[in-house]
Design a protein that fits this description.
Layout (H helix, E strand, L loop, with lengths): L6 H10 L4 H10 L3 H23 L8 H23 L4 H20 L4 H7 L4 H10 L2 H22 L5 H37 L9 H14 L6 E10 L1 H8 L1 H18 L4 E5 L4 E8 L7 H10 L6 E10 L5 H24 L4 E4 L1
Parallel strand pairs: 4-5
Antiparallel strand pairs: 1-3, 1-4, 2-3
Helix pairs in contact: 2-10, 3-4, 4-5, 5-6, 5-8, 6-8, 6-9, 7-8, 7-9, 8-9, 11-12, 12-13
Length: about 350
């Protein structure tokens, strides 16, 4: 039975959890959902701009020149946000700028309404950037978006006053706050569960390392999330020597223990922008992002670490490096596959030469 987590502890975990922009972006890209996701976000943003323009043409809009100019500037800003998504998938920084501008433009349009009830109901629109934040970004931005919603509600209620029934105001206020909490937290709950399921599905159950598909997905995330130049990708293929003999003579249980030990050794070696995975029975791969094309010491460290384990096995290691910062996404994928092939060939050269050694291409 799972023990209940105190609410304060849960809130602390929620507040400290990292954003999910990179892995959600990679998830959508790997499943061919980039285009439809961009179209959806661009369409919603454009629709908010259209609604804003309609409101500014209605009698409920303020007549002051200054505030009207700000409101039309906000509409132009929303169209700019739409153009951002039409142009392509934004970087993480561009995404943060998008949500902040989106939030600000909606706030300006709400303030540009002379009818406070229209302004109050309009705060519901902040649930849109709230849902976006819940999907891609951290709790801090969610709290900011909600704080803006509460502030705007307070302005409409206490600053302008109402010539309507108080019950109607309370009902509208509760509905607005419900939408600005329910939508973001509902989206984040789905993202959280999806993240847990993906995390469990991505790892080899024996060693805890990434499985083959997830290994290449993580490389894609690593390359997509880095804007450092120059960038070189090092691919290392590792195959255990005499592992079949170990299995045949001492049993599969001991073989599993050896694989677990290798996985732990590779995890301890992995530092910085290093991805490690088990891609076959006794085959492992490591990807490292570096700023130089010089031979990495990581390959020899892997070889030495496996040889030091309390099992009669060693490792044949093949390593190759190539520059990847100047490549498009499609070409980069072909380069990664080519590097894997070359690293695999180098590993077989090491194995045919007696094993327990490294070969660089």
């Amino acid at each position: 039975m799972v023990a209940e987590v105190p609410i304060v502890t849960s809130l602390k975990r929620w507040w400290r959890q990292p954003d999910s922009y990179n892995w959600i972006s990679s998830y959508l890209r790997n499943r061919g959902m980039f285009t439809i996701s961009r179209a959806l976000i661009a369409s919603i943003t454009a629709m908010v701009a259209v609604v804003g323009a309609v409101l500014m043409a209605s009698p409920t809009a303020v007549q002051g020149t200054g505030l009207r100019a700000l409101a039309w500037t906000a509409i132009v800003g929303l169209l700019g946000c739409t153009a951002l998504w039409i142009r392509g998938w934004p970087t993480k920084r561009q995404s943060i700028a998008f949500l902040l501008v989106f939030n600000l433009c909606i706030a300006v349009l709400i303030q540009a309404q002379s009818d406070p009830m229209v302004g109050l109901v309009g705060v519901v629109a902040l649930a849109i950037p709230g849902g976006y934040i819940a999907c891609f970004h951290s709790a801090g931005f969610m709290a900011y978006n909600f704080a803006v919603a509460v502030y705007l509600c307070a302005l409409q209620v206490f600053r302008h006053g109402f010539g309507v029934d108080a019950a109607e105001v309370v009902a509208a206020l509760l509905f607005v706050l419900l939408m600005n909490t329910g939508v973001p937290f509902g989206v984040q709950a789905v993202v959280h569960v999806l993240g847990i399921d993906l995390l469990q599905a991505r790892h080899d159950p024996l060693t805890g390392l990434l499985n083959r598909r997830s290994f290449f997905d993580r490389i894609d995330e690593m390359l997509y999330g880095s804007r450092v130049s120059p960038r070189y990708l090092v691919m290392i293929m590792v195959d255990l020597d005499r592992f079949k003999l170990l299995n045949d003579t001492r049993g599969h249980a001991v073989g599993d223990q050896a694989l677990i030990a290798v996985g732990q050794a590779l995890t301890e070696i992995a530092r910085g922008r290093v991805v490690t995975g088990r891609v076959g029975g006794e085959e492992f791969m490591i990807a490292e992002l570096t700023a130089t094309e010089e031979r990495t010491p990581l390959a020899q460290q892997v070889c030495d670490a496996v040889a030091a384990l309390p099992f009669p096995i060693t490792a044949s290691v093949g390593a190759v490096v190539s520059r990847v910062d100047h490549l498009s996404d499609r070409v980069r994928q072909d380069v990664v596959e080519d590097l894997c092939t070359k690293a695999d060939a180098a590993m077989y050269i090491a194995k045919r030469s007696g094993g327990n050694q490294v070969r660089h291409v």
